[in-house]
Specification:
The complex is a heterodimer of chains A (38) and B (336). Chain A has 38 residues and is mainly α. Helix content of chain A is 58%, strand content 0%. Chain A has one helix at 2-23. Chain B has helices at residues 4-8, 15-29, 53-57, 69-81, 96-107, 110-113, 143-147, 160-172, 221-234, 252-262, 277-289, 311-314, 321-335, and strands at 12-14, 33-37, 62-64, 85-89, 123-128, 153-155, 177-182, 189-191, 205-208, 213-217, 239-243, 246-248, 265-272, 298-302. In chain B, the strands form three sheets. A seven-stranded mixed sheet of chain B has the order 3-2-4-5-7-6-12, with helices on both faces. In chain B, strands 9-11-10-13-14 form a five-stranded mixed sheet, sandwiched between helices. A two-stranded antiparallel ribbon of chain B has the order 1-8. In chain B, α2 (15-29) packs parallel to α8. The two termini of chain B are 29 Å apart. The relative contact order of chain B is 0.13. The chains are: A mainly alpha (38), B alpha/beta (336). The interface between A and B is small, with 5 and 12 residues.
Chain lengths: 38, 336
């Protein structure tokens, strides 16, 4: 049961992450060189 | 030219002592700084650069590791990502190949791949340089390898003063920095203030001013270029010697300005010539100074052969002051 709840929690996180990614706009072209260096 | 601090001090240190002082000062300043690598503690490295540090800072901050470059570099990448500021010692630059996945695929890319959320304030100290009779697997100058990878910064000190200042800058940088120290330069002496000072990355140093030709030289080749400039002076040729000090970021502005002034340039480096940093720097100079050049920008790197063990052969593979001066004289004669 404990494993099932962990698996369910992870599945929920993954679904939310995929939904966030699919709904997010593509980045602007000027972001291509952002964060190469801190 | 020498900075004011360097010119004012009379205190002389070897490059090894300068690096050690930089590390000790940074470890006293910031408890997150620690050292790890093979033979860094009791042995103080084979070159004795780190001698005595374990006595002051203890084995928790000066850590001997197993012979596993990939392993301890990976440990350091993780430590850096979680708030520490590790300094990894890769005994010979040739051993970088063993740790390249951690350096090039992990440390260099984590900041980008996390959208700027994670940082890797990691310093990798390693060595370069031939003519030490150490043969093909302990003599390479591989700074071009890491200079090719976006996300890494790369520094090559040529003097004790620069070694201290660049090391302190590297430790305070939030990016992974690879510092190459020339093995034969560890005994080179020079003025080094005891003060806390840093040298900004991307700021070349004009080691000698001149008007007729620009000699751009890195690391050990700076001394070669300065000796060549002396030879050239006897021939009535005034050579300007510039040390970029960091490959990444590269101070293109200073290099181009010098080439525009003199009209000709030679780039001298101890890495293999083909596909090496001489090609990149020559390209930068040609691009920026093309209409002011009186001759093609020339390159002098190490011969494209594994570094031979035989002293007679090894000495043929790297630029010398005589070879640099000969090429410079030819370039200057072609001008008029």
């Amino acid at each position: 049961v404990a494993f099932d709840s962990i698996e369910e929690a992870i599945r929920t996180q993954i679904i939310a992450g995929v939904r966030f990614a699919l709904e997010a706009p593509y980045p602007d072209a000027d972001e291509v060189s952002m964060h190469v260096y801190a | 030219m020498s900075t004011p601090d360097e010119a004012l001090t009379e205190r002389q240190l070897t490059m090894a002592e300068a690096v050690r002082e930089a590390l000790a000062q940074e470890m006293r300043r910031d408890p997150r700084v620690f050292l790890l690598g093979e033979d860094v503690a009791e042995a103080g490295t084979p070159f004795k650069v780190l001698s005595g540090l374990v006595k002051e800072f203890g084995p928790d901050r000066v850590m001997d590791t197993p012979i596993s470059e990939a392993g301890f570099t990976g440990i350091a990448v993780g430590a850096a990502m979680t708030g520490m500021r590790p300094v990894v010692d890769i005994m010979f630059g040739d051993f970088l190949f063993l740790a390249l996945d951690q350096i090039a695929n992990q440390a260099a890319k984590v900041h980008y791949m996390s959208g700027g959320k994670l940082r890797v304030p990691l310093v990798i100290r390693t060595t370069l340089g031939a003519t030490r009779r150490s043969a093909a697997q302990h003599s390479q100058s591989l700074h071009a390898l890491v200079s090719h990878i976006p996300g890494l910064k790369v520094a090559l000190p040529s003097t004790p003063y620069d070694a201290k200042g660049l090391m302190k800058t590297a430790i305070r940088d939030d990016n992974p920095v690879v510092i190459f120290e020339d093995k034969l330069s560890f005994t080179l002496k020079g003025a080094v203030p005891e003060d806390d000072y840093t040298i900004p990355f991307g700021q070349a140093d004009v080691k000698r001013q001149g008007d007729d030709i620009t000699l751009v030289a890195t690391s050990s080749m700076v001394q070669v270029a300065l000796a060549a400039a002396e030879l050239l002076a006897k021939q009535g040729i005034s050579a300007e010697v510039i040390d970029p000090r960091t490959m990444v970021p590269l101070d293109a502005e200073t290099l181009v300005a010098s080439a525009i002034k003199t009209g000709r340039a030679i780039v001298i480096d101890e890495g293999y010539q083909s596909y090496g940093v001489t090609a990149e720097i020559a390209s930068v100079i040609t691009d920026g100074a093309f209409y002011n050049l009186d001759a093609p920008v020339k390159r002098m790197g190490a011969m494209d052969v594994p570094v031979p063990f035989s002293p007679a052969l090894e000495d043929l593979t790297v630029p010398t002051a005589e070879k640099v001066a000969e090429l410079a004289i030819n370039l200057c004669r072609k001008r008029s």
